Amino acid sequence: MKYAKVRKFDIANGPKVRTTLFVSGCTHNCPECFNKDQQSFQYGELWTEEVEEQFLSYVKNPNVHGVSILGGEPMQQLMDDSLLKLLTRIKEETNKEIWLWSGYTYDEIISNPRRKEILEQVDVLIDGPF
């Protein structure tokens, strides 16, 4: 998986202070997309174990209320298990809430076993085309 940006302390994407991950890659091509650069699956940096550890250290900060996952398209991060592993670790190690934005609808997500597996780690889904 590649990612476009990490925000250690974010107040724009969900309630209270959050740590936010913007993943790279999206094929929806929504007309009013505000992250056009992030539509390429090659945009940004490679997600590594070191980046994951740093991200989790941000999430574990007591001032951070939860995590927001945006894109790109998080539900298209099926090339490996990086996103699923991260979300699972967030739940196991911090139990902080996870919000995820997707251009897929809930019904589209649950019809795909791998997307459903990601969704099972999420507390709040903001779904549908943007």
List its traits.
130 residues; six-stranded mixed sheet; 4 helices; 6 strands
Gist?
This protein has about 130 residues and is α/β, with parallel strands linked by helices. It has helices spanning about 50-60, 80-95, 105-110, 115-120; strands at about 1-10, 20-25, 45, 65-70, 95-100, 125. Strand 1 and strand 2 (about 20-25) form a beta hairpin.
Mind explaining what this structure looks like?
The structure is a single chain. Helix content is 27%, strand content 23%. It has 130 residues and is α/β, with parallel strands linked by helices. The protein has a single domain, classed as Alpha-Beta Barrel (TIM Barrel). The chain has a six-stranded mixed sheet with strand order 3-1-2-4-5-6, covered by helices on one side. The longest helix has 12 residues, at 82-93. The protein is globular. The protein starts with a strand and ends with a strand. 33% of the residues are buried. The mean pLDDT is 96.
Question: Helix and strand layout, with pairings?
Answer:
Layout: E1 2-10, E2 18-23, E3 45-46, H1 49-59, E4 66-70, H2 82-93, E5 97-101, H3 106-110, H4 113-119, E6 124-126
Parallel strand pairs: 2-4, 4-5, 5-6
Antiparallel strand pairs: 1-2, 1-3
